[in-house]
Design the sequence.
């Protein structure tokens, strides 16, 4: 297990208000901005890929695990961050991407998936087999999910050159079909302590049944729902004063902390609260690509006013989404195109890797930099914090502003000294 993660878990369990941010994104500018910020703060960072982003068939990024690790290594080298501050992880690794197929087929692909991740050098592995495959219930019971997760852990161990370096996370916060469950008070219902306990008991038993009880001490995280979530047009904030008592559940497991997903768009005070509730791992993703999109659209508006062209970036994005609706169709209506662009779900993030989109972004960046936009014009679209932080982040002023917007969104996740 990573000494860095082990130290953070131990300190959190000892009562320190500490957590490590986990950036779940494959966008190069989001990742560059994140690495630059972590380096500037001299604080650790997890970078994770999901199974739909990166898998043996390329995912929506076109990268397999080995290509993703090479991509991250290149960014680490370019940003100059100490490599020891960066942990690579795989998020929701299991059969989900192939759940329309039979369980046998989907699980065979999941075994290849986790093996590829581990062989590529990704050591923080979230095992998630909670969703049913063809002919199964949408959400599986703890015992079935845990058995499948343990089988995948066997594949991880068999694929690892140093199995002792593996760190496992189990459990899931993914809402059941229909969305997150809301209580009578309008807030997201957190995971019940007894449900969290049952998940850990089932996984520990499954590890033993598969002959890998020796790997159980390398399980360092349990994903549960603390009461934070976001929908396409709404953010559900952590209720003031609420603590569902989940820290008590993991107190019985010396090396296990809580992991929070869907923490995007929460106010800054939420993250230390989560740390004090036992969430030493805190994940963010869509909020960062949302910030990137917001910055690019603002740059586009400035360019269009000063040097109008036939097609702006929003039009290019909308055309790409219309041509290939599979990433948004189950989230938005065809008529409400404003959600295509501005939804908190940020399904637009799936379209940034497309060649025509990359070309449009490159053209926008070049045009903006050529215009030498005055500070007073920028101040109409960007906060003083974003403009100040942008200094020195890139040779291109446009790219520096984009990275700064991302950093402002990520900064509250770093709970140490954040003065940089």
Sequence:
């Amino acid at each position: 297990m990573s000494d860095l993660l082990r130290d953070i878990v131990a300190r959190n369990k000892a009562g320190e208000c500490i957590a490590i941010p986990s950036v779940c994104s494959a966008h190069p500018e989001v990742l560059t901005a994140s690495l630059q910020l972590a380096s500037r703060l001299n604080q650790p960072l997890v970078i994770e890929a999901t199974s739909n982003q990166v898998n043996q068939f390329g995912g929506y990024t076109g990268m397999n695990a080995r290509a993703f690790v090479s991509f991250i290594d290149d960014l680490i080298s370019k940003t100059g961050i100490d490599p020891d501050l960066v942990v690579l992880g795989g998020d929701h690794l299991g059969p989900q991407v192939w759940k329309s197929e039979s369980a046998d087929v989907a699980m065979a692909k999941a075994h290849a998936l986790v093996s590829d991740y581990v062989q590529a050098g990704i050591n923080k592995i979230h095992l998630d087999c909670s969703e049913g495959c063809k002919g199964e219930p949408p959400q599986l019971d703890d015992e079935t999910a845990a058995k499948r997760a343990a089988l995948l852990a066997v594949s991880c161990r068999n694929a690892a050159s140093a199995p002792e370096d593996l760190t496992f996370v189990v459990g899931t916060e993914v809402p059941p079909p229909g969305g997150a469950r809301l209580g009578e008070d309008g807030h997201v219902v957190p995971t019940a302590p007894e449900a969290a306990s049952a998940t850990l008991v089932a996984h520990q038993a499954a590890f033993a049944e598969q002959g890998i009880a020796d790997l159980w001490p390398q399980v360092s995280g349990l994903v549960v729902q603390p009461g934070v979530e976001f929908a396409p047009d709404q953010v559900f904030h952590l209720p003031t004063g609420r603590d569902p008592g989940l820290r008590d559940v993991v107190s019985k497991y010396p090396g296990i902390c809580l992991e929070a997903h869907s923490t995007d768009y929460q106010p800054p005070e939420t993250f230390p609260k989560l740390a004090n509730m036992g969430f030493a791992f805190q994940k963010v993703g869509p909020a960062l690509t949302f910030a990137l999109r917001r910055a690019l659209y603002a740059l586009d508006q400035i360019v269009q006013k000063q040097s109008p062209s036939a097609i702006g970036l929003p039009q290019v994005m909308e055309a790409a989404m219309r041509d290939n609706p599979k990433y948004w169709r189950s989230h938005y209506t065809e008529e409400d195109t404003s959600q295509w662009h501005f939804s908190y779900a940020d399904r637009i993030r799936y379209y940034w890797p497309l060649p025509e989109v990359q070309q449009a972004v490159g053209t926008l960046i070049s045009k903006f930099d050529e215009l030498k936009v005055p500070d007073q014009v920028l101040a109409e679209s960007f906060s003083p914090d974003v403009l100040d932080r942008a200094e020195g982040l890139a040779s291109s002023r446009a790219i520096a502003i984009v990275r700064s917007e991302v950093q402002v969104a990520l900064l509250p996740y770093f709970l140490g000294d954040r003065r940089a």
User: Anything to note?
Assistant: The mean pLDDT is 94. The CA atoms of residues 303 and 367 lie 7 Å apart. Strands lie at 20-24, 45-50, 86-93, 124-127, 167-171, 219-223, 229-231, 234-236, 257-260, 279-284.
